[in-house]
Design brief:
The chain has 13 helices and seven strands. With about 450 residues, the protein is an alpha+beta fold. A five-stranded mixed β-sheet has the order 2-4-5-7-6, with helices on one face. The chain has a two-stranded antiparallel sheet with strand order 1-3.
């Protein structure tokens, strides 16, 4: 019985209100829905009695039933309790006052229901609407009193109910209405508790599902860490194993080239050059693989002398710089930064080397500058090289991505390594470039880094 009552009452309450309402709001929703449903059931039971002639009444039962259902439907569809309550009050006031104005039924049994209007408005719509309906009902009662005492003569002659059966039924209806209202208020507490238990069960179920998914993600994360670690170790081991044979091939090919330099044909020299350049390219590829494998290792941040780091990087690139007669200019840069020295050195090495490699100018120029903000250090490596198209400037940092100039050898990995190294420093790397006008590579390093 209780579950059936709850289902009937909840049918006219929007689901979003049931799921998200506070206990007090849920109590109001269920009381209103139950009260209007009870009044509607009361009217529906009384109306057939009139139709079969059990009593005589001018009360407009169909209109009352229509407005009661409309109030419930408006509440279900619109979800506004105050709107539905005021619609209920307006319709009740309209029906009773119309009955009075048409038939002159001053202070009849129907007027007793007027007293409930401000009470209902106060409970369900708040103090403001309660006071408003109190004023409206009081003004109407004053009007009725003035009419009955002859102060005004607006209504037709009074036609009081002479049917004792209807008077009895009206009294019973009012009594049942009050009892029903009290019953709903009394049991609405248990309804609220039931709904809260349902909501708690839903939350527990969702928490359990979330916990299971979190556990699965943790397992997948652990498995992924193990796999990545194994792949890094395998890549590092393989790269180390390949370096020695490649070095041997390149070294002996160089020795063979020098020994046969004067006694061999141009074709043999060309073949040896291919072997040497191929070996050097393979060595570069292996070094890149090693760099990627080492990205997963723990890194340590320390205070670094920036100018000394860049000068050391330039010494590492001395052969490339001298062969191309490139000019490297170091402008204003932060004196010291906190970073991983090996990583930042690798970033500068890749950017400077690319600026020289992807350059067809007679006089190659590389400018290095930097600034400091409260949150980060920012560096710029600018060249006067080939530049690149706008559409590739975002893709150039992806693994294996290269510019459209395929004539220049490269792995397409260097900038991707730079991006990963800068990510480890909680920074960003990007480029501004125009074709044949050079490129500006920017990268930032977040301050207050801690070792991982």
């Amino acid at each position: 019985m209780k579950e059936t009552l709850i289902n009937v009452v909840d049918y006219f309450i929007p689901e979003k209100l049931l799921d998200n309402a506070s206990p007090q709001e849920l109590w109001l929703y269920r009381c209103f829905s139950g009260m209007v449903s009870f009044i509607g059931a009361n009217v529906l039971i009384t109306y057939p009695m009139k139709l079969i002639g059990l009593f005589h009444s001018n009360f407009n039962f169909p209109t009352a039933i229509f407005f009661l259902l409309l109030s419930l439907l408006i509440f279900k569809l619109h979800g506004s309790l105050s709107f539905a309550v005021n619609l209920f009050c307006i319709s009740t006031f309209f029906i009773i006052t119309t009955d009075t104005l048409q038939y002159g039924l001053i202070f009849s049994e129907g007027n007793v229901f007027l007293v409930l209007i401000p009470i209902i408005a106060f409970i369900f719509a708040g103090l403001r609407y309660g006071l408003l309906w109190t004023v409206i009902v009081c003004l109407f009662v004053i009007f009725e009193y003035m009419e009955s005492t002859g102060v005004v003569d607006f209504l037709p002659p009074s036609l009081p109910y002479l049917d004792p059966i209807f008077s009895l039924i009206s009294t019973i209806q009012l009594f049942l209405l009050l009892l029903g209202f009290l019953y709903i208020i009394f049991h609405s507490k248990s309804m609220v508790i039931s709904q809260l238990e349902i909501n708690d069960e839903r939350l527990r179920q969702k928490a359990k599902e979330l916990e299971e998914k979190t556990f699965e993600l943790e397992e997948l994360k652990s498995e992924l860490i193990i796999r990545n670690d194994n792949l890094s170790k395998y890549a590092a081991t393989t790269a180390h194993d390949l370096k020695q044979p490649i070095r041997t091939i390149t070294s002996f090919a160089t020795l063979l080239q020098s020994e046969l330099s004067q006694n061999t044909s141009s074709e043999v020299k060309e073949y040896l050059s291919f072997i040497i350049s191929g070996g050097e390219a393979m060595k570069e590829q292996v070094d890149k693989v090693l760099d990627i494998a080492n990205l997963s290792n723990e890194i340590v941040f320390s205070t670094i002398d920036t100018k000394e780091l860049i000068e050391h990087t330039l010494r590492m690139l001395n052969s490339q710089i001298e062969n191309t007669n490139a000019t490297i200019e170091i402008r204003d840069i932060p004196l010291q930064i906190i970073a991983n020295e090996v990583s930042i050195k690798k970033v500068f090495q890749n950017l400077i080397s690319n600026g020289i490699k992807f350059n067809n100018k007679e006089q190659i120029k590389i400018e290095i500058s930097g600034t400091e903000t409260p949150l980060e250090w920012q560096f710029i490596v600018k060249d006067n090289g080939l530049g690149m198209e706008k559409e590739i400037q975002q893709k150039i940092f992806n693994f294996g991505e290269r510019s459209k100039n395929q004539e220049i050898e490269g792995t397409g990995i260097g900038l991707n390594i730079c991006k990963k190294l800068i990510n480890l420093h909680k920074g960003k790397i990007w480029v501004n470039s125009n074709l044949e006008k050079g490129s500006e590579f920017f990268f930032s390093i977040r301050k207050n880094l801690s070792s991982t």
